[in-house]
Specification:
By secondary structure, this protein is an alpha/beta fold. 37% of the residues lie in helices and 20% in strands. The chain has one domain: Glycosidases (TIM Barrel), CATH 3.20.20.80.
Length: 280
Amino acid sequence: MSAIYGGGPFYAGSSALSTLNQSGFSTVICWAVHVHTNGDLIYNDTPICSGGAYTGDASWGAQLMAVKTGGSVNRILFSIGGWDTGDFTNLQQIISTDGTGPGSILYQNFAALLKAIPVIDGIDLDDEDNYDQNTIVQLCQMLATIGYGQITFCPYTQQDFWNNCLTALNQSNPGLVTGYNLQCYAGGGSNLYDVSSWISGVQAVMGTSFNAAAFVNPGLWCLNGSGCASGMSPGTIQNYFEGWAPQGTAGGFIWLYDDIMSCGNDPQAYAAAINNGLGG
């Protein structure tokens, strides 16, 4: 599994969408959906669901379907959250007052999103502001009821929190959570040298028969920033995945497609860095 997160370039009308299915990535993660205090869903700065109705670009679903047709991409996720967003604090407050049943605004908005874009396979959760287990569990159970088939977690810290969410959901919805997209950059930079501890933590809570090494997918940041002097080149990224492969790592991701574009780099080279590093 080789995944790529992307923001604006993954919205309707972007020229990036027409090239993604030939990129070599197997998973595309649209980042990020933000949840406002009234339950509205906003893709970055663009409102996409309000009052139980889809309000985004009507062509987005068809464009994402084309991304998933005739090429390397076989999975599309939408990611909620990120640093300093308050999304999961908002989610906790909405769930506490409105619940997650079919009559709730969260249920109606996420149902409207899936109805408008049925090609979405699942939801990625990047909680960096709240860390309330009941919120995560209730949200995921609601998403599963609506019809989202997969949940991934995108942690950079708080191993015990994420593992507790995983075990709780595995009891109520076995197999719903399909992986950790582990941030090994920025605030999660120390994970670059400690992926094995996350694998061990998952193994401990899921049991010896569970393939924890294949469940934890490390992510690295491509070249970015002023003069594109920060981050990693495809060659450096491939070296890291070659180092992780012997422990059983089976997937990984690149953050962020927007930076690949702004630095004039080749998405295929970054996908190949993961795929070749893992021997795929």
